[in-house]
Amino acid sequence: MKKSWQIGGAFVGLIVGAGFASGQEIMQYFTSFGLYGIVGGIVATIAFAFLGMSLAQLGTDLQTTSHKEVIYHIGGRYIGVILDIVITFFLFGVAVVMFAGAGSTFQQMFDINPMIGSIFMMLITILTLLLNVKNIINIIALVTPYLMGIIFIILIYSIFTMDLTIAEQNALAKEQTSAASNWLMGALLYVSYNIAAGAAMLIVMGGTVKERKVAGIGGMLGGLMLGVLIILINIAMFVKMDVVGGVAMPTLELAKQIHPVVGVLMSIALLGMMYNTAVGMFYAFTVRFIAPEHKYFKLGIVVIGLLGFAASLVGFTTLVGKVYSTMGYLGFALIIAVVMSWLRKPKDLS
């Protein structure tokens, strides 16, 4: 069970990057639909749990060190090529968003030039990727309980200090920019692009264990924890919409309102989650092209890291709104392939 919790925690750590933990993604895909955003959070929870379980089990079944084998296994020769290209693009795109998010955090919390934050994130990501994959999974899993604790504190504070009525907050929420046409599409798009981005590393994590049941439970636990975080962050922002509307890092703004120390703790949590996601995404992206034991692997990490930094200069909020929504629509192909693969398999965890 310890290994299952470790996989689940690492899965959360991968997905809860800059946009998720900061509240920016949740704002655009859930909170901007008002009270319906909570229903969207429940839909996302169920989807994350099922897909997390299925992908981790596929990694165990094929004992793979890269997502390529699993993607071609579930998609076939032709669809597999498309899924492979989409996922590989996602990996790089999400890592770039993490670099941009680090810049926004440094600017909003410490009033430091955002480029310095992006450079800092790039450097520690590159250094970490010189470790082996099991060490990376351990590091990623550690930050998850810390973040969940901070988010819970922010939620309690937000509920007890709400100044406007539910109806007034609902009206303000609907004025915010949405990344989808309705609450259901918002929830599905959110799951789609996150799974597409996290699938590669989740498959690799599944490949590090021999027992299908252990991997499946780990993926399911990770999905459930993600869902709980979505709902908690969504409610926290909804009841304080008069405070967080239009802010780049909504949860950080709420944390600063509680106390400057809580703001600093939240900044550390945000940077930790961005770091987790950047490491996971860049690792999975690089091993798609260069085996970890290859003599050019380290050089590849450095080159890809520098390219990611250059791309991050576009800006955090812009990347979250544009890159992620495009990725979400493309990611539906992966979800369909995973569901079809699951339907062909035995329906138990063993």
From TrEMBL:
<feature type="transmembrane region" description="Helical">
    <location>
        <begin position="296"/>
        <end position="317"/>
    </location>
</feature>
<feature type="transmembrane region" description="Helical">
    <location>
        <begin position="33"/>
        <end position="58"/>
    </location>
</feature>
<feature type="transmembrane region" description="Helical">
    <location>
        <begin position="78"/>
        <end position="100"/>
    </location>
</feature>
<protein>
    <recommendedName>
        <fullName>Transporter</fullName>
    </recommendedName>
</protein>
<feature type="transmembrane region" description="Helical">
    <location>
        <begin position="180"/>
        <end position="205"/>
    </location>
</feature>
<feature type="transmembrane region" description="Helical">
    <location>
        <begin position="139"/>
        <end position="160"/>
    </location>
</feature>
<feature type="transmembrane region" description="Helical">
    <location>
        <begin position="323"/>
        <end position="343"/>
    </location>
</feature>
<keyword id="KW-1133">Transmembrane helix</keyword>
<dbReference type="InterPro" id="IPR038728">
    <property type="entry name" value="YkvI-like"/>
</dbReference>
<feature type="transmembrane region" description="Helical">
    <location>
        <begin position="258"/>
        <end position="284"/>
    </location>
</feature>
<keyword id="KW-0812">Transmembrane</keyword>
<feature type="transmembrane region" description="Helical">
    <location>
        <begin position="112"/>
        <end position="132"/>
    </location>
</feature>
<feature type="transmembrane region" description="Helical">
    <location>
        <begin position="217"/>
        <end position="238"/>
    </location>
</feature>
<keyword id="KW-0472">Membrane</keyword>
